[in-house]
Amino acid sequence: MLAATAAAINCVNGDNADNPTEMTAADISNVIASLLNNNAYTITDNIDGDLKFGTSPVRDAYFAMCNARLSGDLENIAQFTPKAQYPYPTNALPSEWGAVRNLRFLLSSIGSFVANASMNNQNVYNVFCTGQEAYACIEQDGYSANFIYRPPIYDGALALNASVGYKFAEVPRITNDAWIINMRCTSTTNIF
After folding, report:
1. How many other C-beta atoms can be found within 10 angstroms of the C-beta atom of residue 63?
2. What mean pLDDT comes out for the span 70-95?
3. Residue 48 pLDDT
4. Residue 130 burial by Cβ neighbours in a 10 Å radius (0-12, 13-18, 19+)
5. What are φ and ψ of residue 104, in 5° steps?
6. Do 161 and 109 fall into the same domain?
7. Is the pLDDT score of 192 beyond 60?
8. 13 in a domain, yes or no?
9. Which whole number is the average pLDDT over 3-31?
10. 23 and 96 in one domain?
11. Is the dihedral of CA 27, 39, 8, 70 positive or negative?
C-alpha cells in the first residue's frame, strides 16, 4: 500500500551515476525538511548523551523503513550513527539499524524494492520515511483475519490437493499524505 500511494522523492545526490542514486546525507536532509515543513510529528524521543566511550546522543526522529540490503549504504554515510553507538541501545527497536540526523532506520529482509527499475537496470529501494500517525490499518465491521485450510482428501483422482487461504476486512490507509515520503534509491553495496 505504501509503495503504491506514498509521495516519492528520488535520491539525486549520490555518486553512482544512476537515477535514482544511492542514498546520501543530503537526500536524507531533504526528506527530513519536507516532513518538518509538513508539520509531521516525530515518532521517537531523543536519547540523551552519557559519559560512555564511542557513543553520541540521538535526536528525536522519524522512522525510515527499508530493505536490509541498504545496510552497507547507510554505514557509508559519514553522519550515520549505528545503534551500537547509542548511549542506551536498549531504547531502540530490535530492527533498528541506526540513525542519520532526525531519521532512524528500521531494516527488514522483506523491505520493499522494485527490481531493475533504475535507469541502469538496478533495483530501486523504497525507503518509507514516516511521521507519527501517517498511516493506519482500519478494521471494518469488527471483522478480524480468518485463516482457511482445507486438508487433502482421497476421493479418487479428484480432490487430492489441499487449499490454504485467508480473508480479512481491513484497509491499510495513509491518514495524511504530507507525513509520509517514499525516498527511492539504488544501492552501491551488494551485501547479499
Report:
1. 20
2. 93
3. 83
4. buried
5. -105, 130
6. no
7. no
8. yes
9. 94
10. yes
11. positive
Cβ atoms of residues 23 and 11 within 8 Å: yes
* pLDDT value at residue 156: 65
- Radius of gyration (Cα) for the chain, nearest Å? 20
Q: Verify that 151 and 59 share a domain, yes or no.
A: no
CA distance 6 to 34: 13
pTM of the model: 0.82
Domain boundaries, position 155: 140-173
Within this chain, do residues 15 and 99 fall inside the same structural domain, yes or no? yes
Looking at the structure, do residues 16 and 58 belong to the same domain, yes or no? yes
Q: Do residue 162 and residue 101 come from a single domain? A: no
For the record, the C-alpha cell of 10 comes out as 528520488
Residue 10 lies in a domain: yes
For residue 170, the SS3 value is strand
pLDDT of amino acid 159: 63
The number of distinct structural domains making up the chain is 2
Longest dimension (CA), the chain: 74
pLDDT band for position 50 (cuts 50, 70, 90) = confident
Reading the block at residue 59, the C-alpha cell is: 535526536
Q: What is the DSSP track for 64-95? A: EEEEGGGHHHHHTSTTEEEGGGSS-GGGS-TT
Give the whole-angstrom CA distance, residue 143 versus residue 165. 16
Instruction: Report residue 173's pLDDT band, with 50, 70 and 90 as the boundaries.
Output: confident
Region of 16 please: left (phi>0), alpha (psi -120 to 50) or beta. alpha
